[in-house]
Amino acid sequence: MTDYKTITFEQKGRVALVTLNRPDALNALNAEVMQEVVDCFAAIDRNKDIAVSVLTGAGRAFAAGADIKEMQPQSFSDMYVEDYFAGWDRFAASRKPVIAAVNGFALGGGCELAMMCDLIIASDKAKFGQPEIKLGVTPGMGGSIRLTKAVGKAKAMDLVLTGRMIDGTEADRIGLVSRVVPHDTLMEVALAAAEEIAAFSVPSLMAAKEMVARALELPTTEGVKFERRLFQGLFGTADQKEGMSAFSEKRPAKFEDK
Ligand code: DAK
């Protein structure tokens, strides 16, 4: 789980820290990065000792988008037959919570990757944008749908049609990010948030993630039913008994992810 070329993986207690590590190319996302990220997060989902992950980028960027040099020569049939970049759907389907700690440029596929995560904590020096229009294309990794759901049509059209960048503070104001923090405190805040979440029971974290994610896709009555079934199911866990007993006994809960 540590033998990667384009990313780094560290484990800090129940928190995984995954860093996109092509700083000379501003962490541009090529096929190798995608495969390594997908493999790494599949391993995190299988690892019983990890509850939460933080995804960040080395150097000046979170990720400055898909690798333009890799994409430039490709034809329609290359893209279509290989289903280029479809692997990112597997990352988006990760079952444990993922926090994007956005340290710099999050452009194009980099902004879309951040939006696949569950929380986005941004540095005030971060730069978000969907500049694909300047390359003669459009968002292709879910940006048109996830961005529009996050910030609404008016702001999404502005970003997608002009390709302009916004900073972390504007991204916070329009609802694209969960929190914006001073640049120097980014990793401290992101890891503290991850540790706070990692103290909870993994089955309830997975259920919470799944229900909020489905809320964006389901009609209200179906979403409420889906939430209720997951909520009811958690009464089959030992951690529900422990969490509620600990409350009554005025002591901290000791969860076992069971
Ligand atoms: N791809 C490849 N290399 C990149 C890159 C990228 N996206 N972004 C930066 N680099 C490289 C630069 O080429 C440069 O490399 P060298 O020339 O030194 O070899 C190095 O990183 C440093 O960049 P700059 O010299 O340009 O640095 P500056 O500070 O001057 O400018 C910048 C920073 C972020 C403003 C600029 O680098 C920039 O505009 N980068 C491109 C941003 C961009 O357009 N991003 C969107 C890419 S398109 C798909 C799904 C999704 C996608 C595609 C397909 N399918 C499902 C099929 C996604 C598409 C995209 O994301």
TrEMBL record:
InterPro entries: ClpP/crotonase-like_dom_sf, Enoyl-CoA_hyd/isom_CS, Enoyl-CoA_hydra/iso, Enoyl-CoA_hydra_C. Gene3D superfamilies: 2-enoyl-CoA Hydratase, Chain A, domain 1, Lyase 2-enoyl-coa Hydratase, Chain A, domain 2. Pfam families: ECH_1. Keywords: Fatty acid metabolism, Lipid metabolism, Lyase. One of its GO terms (molecular function) is enoyl-CoA hydratase activity. SUPFAM superfamilies: ClpP/crotonase. It is an enzyme of class 4 (lyase). Its EC number is 4.2.1.17. It catalyses: a (3S)-3-hydroxyacyl-CoA = a (2E)-enoyl-CoA + H2O; a 4-saturated-(3S)-3-hydroxyacyl-CoA = a (3E)-enoyl-CoA + H2O. GO terms for biological process: fatty acid beta-oxidation. Could possibly oxidize fatty acids using specific components. Belongs to the enoyl-CoA hydratase/isomerase family. This is enoyl-CoA hydratase. It comes from Hyphomonas hirschiana VP5.
